[in-house]
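hey so i finaly got around to running the thing on Rx N-terminal domain-containing protein from Camellia sinensis var. sinensis. pasting the sequence first so u can double check i didnt mess up the copy paste, my clipboard has been acting weird all day
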Amino acid sequence: MEDVGGEYFRELLSRSFFQPSSTGKSSKFVMPDLINDLAQVVARDTCFRLEDRLKHQEQCKNIKKARHSSYMRESCEGMKKFEIFDKAMHLRTFLPFYTPYGWNCYLASNVPLNLLPKLRRLRVHNMSRYRIIEVPNSLGDLKHLRGHRLRELGNLIYLRGKLCLFGLQNVVVPFKAKEANLNDKGLDVLSMEWSVNSDDSRDGRVETEVLDMLQPHKNLKELHIKGYLGTGFPNWIGDPLFSNMADLSLDNCGNCASLPPLGQLPSLKKLYIKGMSVLKHVGREFYGQGGVQPFLLLETLSFENMPEWEDWYTFGDHKEVQPFTHVKYLSIIKCAKLLKRLPTDLPCLNNLEIMDCPKLSGMMPKDLPCLNKLEIRNCPKLCGMIPKDLPCLNNLEISKCPQFLVEGSSISLPSLTSIAMDDVPLTSLQVVLEMRSMVDDEVISANAKSKRPSSRTSLSIGMIKKLELLPKWVTYGLMELEALEITSCEELKTLWKNEARIQHSLPTF
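ok and heres what it spat out for the 3d tokens, dont ask me to read them lol
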């Protein structure tokens, strides 16, 4: 981008649109008076200079149409100077020109607080070299704002809270990223984003160095990285000295073949990994060095859109290492090649979600005493049986899993109130409904004694082969049903037998 801009500038210089400055500095250029006058006439409806507002009142009237504006810095600047910009609703560029005041420019705190929220379409703004203590939260509402220069962040010595960096693919000199001095900022949340569209001009080695140079302060609580195309992660990601980091996401880091040692982060509670398109193995390196129990506080773990991921090392039956004992939410979505079994040490798991994993096979985790919701969709080879004892299971959704088995010998589902089963074996559907029926008898009896209404249940059935008749539980417990949905059961002949219809005054179909 800089090279193209340089070519344009040299072309304009050769045509006398610019000329060397009389100051004698070779890097300074000015626009000749005639060209300057012509430029102002041509751009008078879209460009606005604050200093011209008294000279050209007509231009002030057209400020609503202005797209670009500039002004000269002063030693002290308050809201009165910028009042006219209340009308500049379509402003894209808002830049100060430097003056001899250098670093001694003071900007009243109410200027960014009152002015920036009104410039909703602002894309480029520069507050460097101002002695400011804070930037308003409303800065995050300027959806079109672009980062001007990373090095200018280095001047914001009091920057706190949340910082989002976009367009990092444009940083081609890694050392310039270090000038942002992020390790000196008291940030709680840091988001770093490269373009998600890769092209041949991007250099993975440069992006690795840039990410390394952008190392934040170790008190950081949240880190989000998106679109990064380096081939690996720098050492600071996963460093246990980041002892406050509780939330971390890696999104579309498409060239990384392995994960950093995130298990070493002692306060990590939420971890989201998405779009790592070349990663094949989640191995021991994911957990960190031995001697410390990994993922001590992890509660949410999500993998999504991992097309090459094949296996997940989870320590198997090694009881001395149980990395996921606090996980409450586990999600695995769109992992087309994942083969191996899931972790087994999930005593606190509350929500299990598995979708679009066509090669996943093997057994389900055995002991899930806290599981409240189980959702499995489009896993045609998953034949592992549902755990026998699920005392807290409230919501069961199984879809497009034609080999998914449920055995009825000793299964217990006392809390189940919502059932959705689509394209599963008929025997599995029957077992689930029969177990619900057995529980229902006990619930009805207990409710009769306590005079409390029995729990209502929703039932959705679809694409069940060989289903000719609804199970008894649906008939006898029909009054408890809040919702009943039956779709694409082509062999279904009737909903209930005649004796059940007569006994319960049910309609004929």
